[in-house]
Fold this sequence. Notes:
Number of helices: 20
Distance between the termini: 47 Å
CATH class of the largest domain: Alpha Beta
Radius of gyration: 22 Å
Helix content: 25-40%
Largest sheet: 5 strands, mixed
Low-confidence stretches: 1-46
Amino acid sequence: MDGFKGFKFDRRGVLAAVAASLALAGCGSGGGDGAGGETVAAAAVDGAVEKPNLKLGFIKLTDMAPLAIAKEKGFFAEEGLNVTLEPQANWKVLLDGVIGGQLDGAHMLAGQPLAATIGYGTKADLIAPLSLDLNGNAITLSNKVWSMIAPTLPKGPDGKPKHPISASVLAPVVKSFAQQGKPFKMGMVFPVSTHNYELRYWLAAGGLNPGYYTPGDVGGTVDAAVQLSVTPPPQMPATLEAGTIEGYCVGEPWNQAAVFKKIGVPVITDDEIWHDNPEKVFGLRKDFAEKYPATTAAMLRAIIKAQQWLDADGGKNRPEAVKILSQPNYVGADYDVIAASMTGKFTFEPGDTRPAPGFNIFFDKFAGYPYYSDAIWYLTQMRRWGQIAEDRTDQWYFDTAKAVYRPDLYLAAAKKLVADGAIPAGSVPETDGFRGEQGGFIDGITYDGKQPNAYLAKFKIGLKQGQKVTAAGVQ
């Protein structure tokens, strides 16, 4: 589905009139575009939400854009919500804030509500009623490592490296490090992050074992050829520059930051690892959604409208979005650094900028719909690398996915927007919650969310049926 025109119903005149008639135009506060007076008016039109004042958390990444746009363009205010957006120090702090109730919801790693629900790392009943985006990550290597592999890479007619670049090119580098008695270390943002699983997928597809998680090794380094560690996204470039790690997988703008600082070279985007892969979700506590159903629905409607705005008309709004995200209270990176990936292109190194129209997808291709099969993919990777210690039945995967991913809540919000003329009917999928068999993976393996155990059996590197992890290792 391409960009579209003319479906956004502008309610601001109606809202302003209602606000004036109620003499309430000055009440409340709202988006940064001065839409605060619409808060009470929107509630008057649509029926009051149970909790109009909300605090939502995010990490400084460009894929938090739907939340920033929902606030700055007045979409939260249109739904009767007065939202404060608060940056969090790291993913652990953000998760704890949602679980503890300090945050009402958050821009969240897709693996976080799944891991919390199954009790990995922490235990809490969280849900994901909306997917925030597709794609958006990349893997960057240090200049030192790039200089070691660049001469070996096949080149295209333009003299630039052919893509995608396989992790197999790292094998001699990893061997060289081992001969010097040094582990080869790379960074990712959180143990249950998309970035961890994408980095592991890329390494394993290239024949390098990224290691297993066990009760005795929560770092996931058992049998690892490449050791992975956690670094918060904004700190990735500095950690690379310090030599603590030789590469990382992170969301934007922190790969482009390495290019601009001339300290590293992105070698592959996540879209090249898994075409149009699901990325972040909007996460919140299950009991919040049950206690405040109208508030939850209003949040989802506002975010969906923001997602539509971000992808409208082939990305015509992206420059404005970049300007908003560059503000210090959001991502806080330079405009040019954010624009380098957010406006339809991606720079791998100076002089090598390539078209990447799908690097960030927020609304097109049903990006907002929380597919059960997306949740199941994350669960298969948790099992593959030992975060799920023992075999689980296919039904367990289905039941867990359906407990966390909530397309019913998404559809209720989206269909209301269709009825209001705010989004087109064709932007809401007709589905049983599964995408069907998917290709587009760097290793050529296909994925069917309805057969998780059969999918796991396809991998050469990863836990096999019957294997389990214990404090003593893989058994």
